[in-house]
Specification:
The protein is mainly alpha-helical. It has 15 helices and no strands. The longest helix has 43 residues, at 71-113.
Length: 366
């Protein structure tokens, strides 16, 4: 059943996906990429971008076959009243799990870097209050907030990268292919699952004005993320060197602490903390809303809002289960990322079932 939740265009959708993906650059993901590619981590970013854009093509094709519909409605039409809700439920579970890990990761980041004496429960409660409020406002409010905050976040990150240029040593970016072609390619394929976050757009597909908007949002969002990741990792490796870059969990925070322009500009890491807050809020709100909306669709509920508060309490409780930051990182790297391939497989399966059963209007949005 369709709900009136406003509308967003290709620009807002692309910026929303870019913010969802780009927020991971504030966390440990540059460290992961350096561990895979070493000095050629920038090549890993390029490969992940290409593989990610290919990985979301089935989702784009599915959206064009069912224009103006969200995942829950598409699943029921393509896979039937039994299998369809199960597939939607699986995607919803992954989105909510990703939101849970995101909440814990950013909580630990704030505690380690700037708020060492703050109980995790306080930050988790604050994050979930923000996510609940955003979800009640709807996806249009989340997307437009990301669109308004993008210039500020982008300007701050570019400022950090720009002032890091004098410290760069480009010889640290070689040899090409880092630890070897095979390891670089396999590692790039493994972290292609980061593109699974794009399924959050399909979960709220009914708010896009047409299928082309969702298509452009998905591809442009991944492309912008790839460019940002390549620039960030390049500056990080050329500044700190691969051995240190693969061990530092907060790369942008590290680069910001190196900035010193006499008495005129010091302690630039305070800017990065502010951008952390903005990016974390957008990512958490988007994943949480997409997961709750998909869960309501899988349960055939006419309205998602009754599920918002109960799911927020559950996610807040689950986010406290990892005993420390290392456990949260392990959960993200060893479970959430690999399970992203399963989330990416759902649109492909639905597209195949729709084609075999002759469901959808494939030529309607062509």
């Amino acid at each position: 059943m369709q709900q009136v939740e406003g509308h967003i265009g290709a620009r807002e959708g692309g910026v929303l996906l870019f913010t969802i993906l780009g927020s991971m650059l504030f966390l440990q993901y540059p460290q992961y990429l350096v561990r895979v590619g070493g000095p050629a981590a920038w090549q890993v970013c390029i490969l992940i971008t290409l593989f990610g854009m290919i990985a979301v093509l089935p989702m784009v094709a599915l959206a064009r076959r069912f224009p103006g519909q969200k995942l829950a409605d598409i699943s029921q039409q393509a896979a039937g009243p039994f299998l369809g809700p199960l597939l939607t439920l699986a995607v919803s579970a992954w989105l909510l799990a990703a939101a849970t890990v995101t909440l814990r990761n950013f909580t630990e980041t704030f505690i380690i870097t700037i708020l060492p004496h703050t109980p995790p429960s306080v930050l988790i409660a604050a994050g979930m209050i923000l996510a609940v409020f955003s979800s009640y406002q709807g996806p249009e409010a989340i997307a437009r907030t990301a669109y308004l905050l993008l210039p500020l976040i982008a300007a701050g990150v570019l400022l950090v990268l720009l002032f890091s240029l004098p410290r760069m040593d480009v010889t640290l970016l070689f040899p090409l292919w880092g630890f070897g072609v095979d390891r670089t390619l396999v590692g790039s394929l493994y972290f292609t699952s980061m593109a699974a976050d794009a399924i959050a757009l399909l979960a709220i597909g009914n708010v896009f004005r047409d299928a082309r908007d969702l298509q452009h949002s998905s591809l442009h969002g991944i492309l912008l993320f790839g460019i940002s990741a390549t620039l960030t990792v390049t500056v990080l490796v050329a500044t700190a060197g691969p051995p240190f870059a693969r061990e530092d969990p907060f790369p942008l925070f590290y680069l910001a602490r190196l900035i010193y322009l006499g008495r005129f500009l010091q302690r630039a890491e305070a800017l990065i903390v502010m951008f952390w807050i903005f990016a974390a809020a957008i990512r958490l709100s988007a994943l949480f809303h997409a997961g709750v909306s998909s869960l309501a669709g899988a349960l055939r509920l006419p309205e998602y809002r009754p599920l918002v508060l109960p799911m927020a309490i559950i996610i807040a409780a689950l986010s406290l289960l990892p005993k420390d930051y290392v456990a949260a990182l392990h959960l993200d790297r060893e479970w959430i990322r690999p399970m992203g391939f399963g989330a990416l497989a759902v649109p492909l399966l639905l597209w195949m079932l729709a084609a075999l059963r002759g469901r959808g209007a494939a030529d309607h949005a062509s």
